[in-house]
Write a structure and sequence with these properties.
5 helices, globular, about 120 residues
Length: about 120
């Protein structure tokens, strides 16, 4: 079971690292071009989510690996589950239905990691 959970933790880290880095470092013009925000909106909330995703990647791997405050690993996974609920709501409201099954799967992986690591 431990190996299975490590695989799930690695998958969570892989799923969140690239979008987190992109959200953190992409220019506001790039965000507008991707239609993530409009020209008059602030990029700060988008950047905040990106920073939290990158920190979550470290949180889902390092505490359990290093045995330093290992309770942070299930908390990071629970945070990812919450992010997926928000992403589901946003994509559903934008009528972007194609991505919804992937969001549900990522949500379930995060819940499994959080539940089993607690």
């Amino acid at each position: 079971m431990n190996t299975f959970l490590w695989v799930l933790q690695g998958l969570l880290a892989a799923v969140f690292i690239v979008p987190g880095v992109i959200k953190t470092f992409i220019s506001k013009a790039g965000l507008v071009e991707k239609k993530a925000i409009t020209a008059d909106e602030s990029a700060a909330p988008y950047r905040f989510i990106g920073i939290m995703e990158v920190l979550g990647v470290f949180g889902v791997i390092l505490p359990w690996l290093l045995s330093i405050y290992p309770v942070l690993t299930p908390l990071a996974a629970a945070g990812f589950a919450i992010v997926m609920v928000g992403a589901f709501v946003v994509h559903f409201s934008k009528k972007d239905y194609k991505i919804l099954p992937a969001l549900v799967i990522i949500f379930l992986v995060a819940v499994i990691v959080a539940w089993q690591r607690f």
